[in-house]
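Appendix B. Chain record.
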Amino acid sequence: MPTVEFVTVDVFTAERFTGNPLAVVTDARGLSSDQMQQIAAEFGYSESTFVLPPEDPANTARVRIFTPTVEVPFAGHPNVGTAYVLGQQTEIFGKPVGDSLRFEEHAGIVEVDLSREAGAVLSTSIRAPRPLTTGETVSAELVARCISIDVKNVLTARHEPIFASVGLAFVFGELDGLDTLGHTVPDFGAFREAAARYPGDGLGFSLFLYVRDNARPGHIRARMFAPLDDVPEDPATGSASAALAAYLVASMPEDDANQHLTIEQGVEMGRRSIIELDVVKRKGEVTDVRISGRSVFVMRGTIDC
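Structure tokens predicted for this chain:
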């Protein structure tokens, strides 16, 4: 019976028991895909990661990401947290650890930069593995029913609710204020209807709702719901934040821009998370999206498989 080691970290926070928890199996050799899925379901976090030797020795590691129900091609907080964990080690599969890492994932190569203080990793920054893509728009009426609010509270002047992705697709909807955001409640029946009508990739119908902070340009409050994937609410969603940041910058009238955005998530859950985004736009197209944040260790242990 193989035994594997794991650590858990809280991601997009420097304060333990806030942010988004993540389980990292630091050496998943010997585990089958079914075992990885079972372990992820046992943890019950929005995602867990499993680290394997890279297929290309030029890269650092192969990282597989599982929600409680499915493997996904890319996600933000699992990459930020996994990089934080691996960056504290002196070597990864026999290779010394520097300040840059490269993860092989189903969505492509994820490039990571580590920021250190006195040798310890202070924060990590990852680059989205795919360019921005957009998909279907979704009716504001259906989005409103999914989260149990009035359709008038879903803003459509800037954009209709829409699928967008930089590696994993979400539906983005803008709401009219923090009071509305705070009173959203997922309706499973409406989510099932939405998933049947709009079958997406990865998590199917995952809804990322946001409110602009008019007093602080570039600051956004958000919530993410994916109840059909056993994630009633996610405290921090880096992949969705990156896609939203890319979409908003792509929609700006300027042909060239270097834009920094801060997304605050998880407040209503008591797990406040801070996600920093840097977006580069050149000649009318978003060319780069970086997701940055801090992490903190919480637990260590072993799993008997």
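Further analysis of this model is presented in Appendix C.
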